[in-house]
Every structure is written in structure tokens, then in C-alpha cells.
Amino acid sequence: SQQGEEDPQALSIQEGENATMNCSYKTSINNLQWYRQNSGRGLVHLILIRSNEREKHSGRLRVTLDTSKKSSSLLITASRAADTASYFCATGGFGNEKLTFGTGTRLTIIP
Amino acid sequence: SAVISQKPSRDICQRGTSLTIQCQVDSQVTMMFWYRQQPGQSLTLIATANQGSEATYESGFVIDKFPISRPNLTFSTLTVSNMSPEDSSIYLCSAGQGPNYEQYFGPGTRLTVT
User: Fold this and answer.
1) Which residues of A touch B98 (CB under 8 A)?
2) Do A42 and B107 count as a contact with CB atoms less than 8 A apart?
3) Composition of chain B by helix, strand, coil, percent to 5
4) CA of A39: which chain B residue's CA is closest?
5) Which of A10, A93, A103, B3 has most Cβ atoms within 10 angstroms of its Cβ?
6) Cβ B67 vs Cβ B54: under 8 Å
7) Section A14-26 average pLDDT
8) CA–CA separation, B95 vs B56, rounded Å?
9) pLDDT-based confidence at A94, cuts 50/70/90?
């Protein structure tokens, strides 16, 4: 079963704009991770945020975590055509834990 | 980070047959995981494979349908048995290097059952 839902399910923006995706989860977590999947291929790990962190940056990515609301957001700034992909949040998965995925957001960047 | 390869990358199979998917990691890992992604859906864990012991299956998945082998610390196989069109999915393996490392994924195997 899915851990939670992502919002929106699909998002289309112009190249250069910022994209924000939200993830809600159901149970207490130790960490939350974001992955990218291009065209139904393998998943690329983007960023991990621990439960005691509120915000984390990696290049053009910014992830926030609000454990009181059981939610996280992924912001991609200055979007590029290559950012077109599906984005998934997932809980667990650090080392030997299984990953439980959200429903995913399909992001399309319009050149 | 671990580099994970899968074979085959895609296959088209007839119903009633079986397909074995291989997953190779470039370093020794404790845990390997197999996920299924049905068309347009998110990923669902099939089972966890620990070297030297039986795989642990998630609810809704059984060993007779998805037998898994884990003969050493760098390799695992997943067999999709007696396939039906409903088994058409992408199958992905992942590996965790230990308690302080993220999981990494293979490129996936796209299976179509006709």
C-alpha cells in the first residue's frame, strides 16, 4: 500500500519557472526521500531529509519537511526541459529499511 | 553510491511462461529489494532479499508466483511465474549498503505479457 499521496498528480510549467510538489504521509518517519524517474526507467535518488531536519538544499532542489503535518515539499527552481519526469516521495529506505512510495507527480517542463 | 544493473532491460512474453530477472550490484550489500511498478502507478515492494535466508514477501505477493534467489552479497534474481497480462509492469531492484546509506535502484525491467 502507498504511504501517502502526492499533490498535484500532474504539473506542467514553462521552462525557467519553479515547480513545487507536495507529499503527505501517514505514519511517523525517520526520514523521507525524493526520487526522480524518467520515462518509466530506473529511479534516481535526489535527496534525503531526516525527521529532525526542516529544510535541505541540493543544487536547484529544496526540500522541506513538516513532521507535525506529516508533509514534505520538493521545490525545483529555474526548471529545465531535462527536469521533465515523475517525482516520488518515499519514506523509510535508509540502508536496510524498505521504501514506501507516494503516488507520484508527473512534471512536464514546456520549452 | 552503488551501481546496479538489471537484465533483461525489457521483454515481451507469452502468458503462462516465466521470466527470470537478474540484478547485479557492483559492491556487497546487505539487503536487496524487488519492486513492481504497474503502468502509470507508483512502486510497490514485492519482497526483501537477504543473503542466506528466505526472502520476505509483502502482503499480496507469494513465493510461488515471485520466487527470489539471493546466492551472494552482489546478486539476486526475481522470477515472474505463470505470467498473465496483469503482470505487465516495470520490475526494479534496489540495494541498501547499510544503515547509513540511501537505497539505489537499477534501471528496471519492462515486462509485457501478451
Assistant:
1) 95-96
2) yes
3) 5, 50, 45
4) B40
5) A93
6) no
7) 96
8) 15
9) low
